[in-house]
Amino acid sequence: MASNFSNQSGICRGRDAPPSHYLFKIKSFSLLSKAPVLNYTSDMFKAGGYQWKLSLYPNGNKSRDGEDHISIYLALAEMSSLPSGWEINVVFNFLYSISFRTNWREGRYHAMKTEWGFTKFIDLKTFHNPLNGYLIDDTCVFGAEVFVAKSTFKGECLSMTKQPASCHYYSWRLCNFSSLLDQRYNSEPFGDYNWNIILYPKGNGEARGSNVSIYLSYAQSSVPLNTKLFVKLILRVKNTRGEDLSHQSKSYICSLNFKG
């Protein structure tokens, strides 16, 4: 039967199964606690595709205010093969005592933070009390389970230029506008991305029957996949004398995404 109790590290539970990834048994714990060493580091073990070590402070990590407690940490042991900017998200479980009481925690490992754990894992008074069963015949057991969360990180790089890479001017002259019968007309392609103007003489969508609709389009085959373009464009209507009708000119800045 599982048992529960609360200490400064949180809620802990007991179980029968041993740890999945590493078991650290210490005999003559009293000698280790009296030895002139601050902490003991275990051998390396592999879990989740990475190498790890346990770091145990039998009298507490006093540099982090862990006095009168046992401190324990999970440290990443091998980093030389990791790429620049690496990051590892981990859920790990420390187990201790013969009944394998458990204590879970999450950690985000990176170059500036290579170990996570509990500075006040369990207080020494509770640990040494024989009624609690943590230390039996001067022997104790610690264990670890490590579960790595696989990253699905994606990113992108945005590069802005003061002047556009290319600037195109295109005029499309339509004759006998009033006699246009088709719903939609496309201009000839122009520019680096095979742009074309789309015209709906009698309007499109909500504007159908009351306005003229005009759009700028492109050929998808001319743009690499997973590319994003920021485009500044002006759609302008001229009268038959070639004069700009400023109240009918529209300027837009838009973002275009091309995904595979």
Give a verbal description of the structure:
This protein is 4% helix and 40% strand. It is built from 2 helices and 16 strands. The strands form 5 sheets. Strands 4, 5, 6, 7 and 10 form a 5-stranded antiparallel beta sheet that branches. A hairpin with a 2-residue loop joins strand 5 (45-47) and strand 6. It is rod-shaped and about 105 Å long.
Beginning-to-end CA distance, first to last residue: 53 Å
Task: Tell me the β content.
Answer: 35-45%
How many DSSP E strands? 16
Radius of gyration: 34 Å
The computed structural class is mainly beta
What's the pLDDT, averaged over the residues?
A: 80
How would you sum up the major sheet? 5 strands, antiparallel
* Apparent shape: rod-shaped
SSE pattern, N- to C-terminal: EEEHEEEEEEEHEEEEEE
Helix fraction bin: under 10%
User: Any low-confidence stretches, pLDDT <50, length ≥5?
Assistant: 1-17
Oligomer: single chain
Topology overview:
Blueprint: E1 4-7, E2 10-13, E3 22-27, H1 29-34, E4 40-41, E5 45-47, E6 50-57, E7 69-76, E8 87-96, E9 101-110, E10 115-123, H2 124-128, E11 139-149, E12 185-186, E13 196-200, E14 213-217, E15 227-235, E16 250-258
Antiparallel strand pairs: 1-2, 3-11, 4-6, 5-6, 6-7, 7-10, 8-9, 8-11, 12-13, 13-14, 15-16
